[in-house]
Structure formats: structure tokens, C-alpha cells
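We emphasize that the prediction below concerns an isolated chain of 219 residues; any contacts that depend on oligomerization or on bound cofactors are therefore not represented. The input was used exactly as deposited, without trimming of termini.
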Amino acid sequence: MPKIDLTKAVEMKVSAGRALAIRGVGFAWERVSGPGAVYGRTISVDTGNNASVAGSGASAGVFPSTSWVQASGFPNFAGISVADNTGSMAMVVGAEALAANSGTVSAPAPTGDYTMLRRGVTPTAGSAFIFSGVPFSEYDVIFYGNATGAVTFDATFSAQGMSVSLSGSGNQYSGSLVEGGNYIKLAGLVGPDVRIEFSSSVVPGRWAVCGFQVVERLD
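Result of the prediction step, given as a C-alpha cell string:
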């Protein structure tokens, strides 16, 4: 029988290009994960006020969910308790200094993403989204948005020393979700309370936030 060297690592390729290495020394084993992110629970909020995906039963988002919550008090809202996709009460969300955007999107078919992206809120001076009691130790926030008509736009989101921006022109949804086009992500936020500044060089802005997801990171 061939001799097995348990001191060498055995590596297996798993989903999404992620590597799992198992190292053995005698009978003491260590699980080591490769690069990439592992995600858990999701909180999904629709910030529009017409044809909302919330309550429709439709699935929407990069992290597909049917548990979208409608942000009442359009365009600004405060003290809304939002449950995650497991049904647990998760966090409180609010927003301030936002303006309404009444634009609609075109799409090959009325999907959940299309419904979620139909209307949103744009920034004025001092606009922000405020989260309290986020139950995740580390998380990403994904903002979904769309422009109205053939306009040139830009939008910037800033929090905890990080900043992400996008720019473009015209309708940004033609049937699929595209990072840097109709959604943008702030990755690796930490802590239960966070204020995310939302700004544009054009006030009020032309790229409207139609919804967002807060996604738990497990890696």
C-alpha cells in the first residue's frame, strides 16, 4: 500500500473559483479558505413609491430576494424597521435631504429588477442614508439606480473612509444588472451604525437610488 503524506496540502477547486485547502499534520486538520467573499443574510429596501417590488412576490437584486421592504415616507424616511430575508428583525434605516425622481425604465420584460428600478430618490446638499443596529459584523451595501432620459449623470457614495462613484448618460437598465451602470457597491463596511453620504455634481442628482441591499459577509 502506498504511503500517504499527511503533511502536504490537498487543494480542491470549488464554486466561483474559490479554493479550499485542507492541511493535515497527524490528525489535526485546518480549513483554509482562498480569496473571494462568502455571503449570508440579506436586507433589501425599495426606495421608490410606485409599482414597488416590495410585497409583489417578485425576486430582484444581485442577491435575488423576494423579501423587499417598502421605504414609506418617500422621498425621505426615518425609523423604518427592516427584517432580513430569514424574517428576523434586523435594523433601522433612514434617509435625509433626498429629492424625488419620477423617471421610469425600459426593459425587455417587466421583471422584478425592472419593477424595483422604476422610481427612486436623488441627492441634494447633505443627502445621506443612515443605518442603525446593523446585525452583521461586516457587510457590503449595494445601491441600485437609474437615470431619467438621455441625461449625463454622476453619483458618489462615501462611508468609513471609502468612496465609490459612477457616471454615464441615458437609461442604465436594458434587462440586466450591471455594476457601475445600474448598481454600485460599498464593500467591507463594519459596525452596527453607519452614515453613507450620497452626492452628485448635479443637484438634485439625475441618477436615482431605487433600492439597496445590505449583505452579510461571512469570509
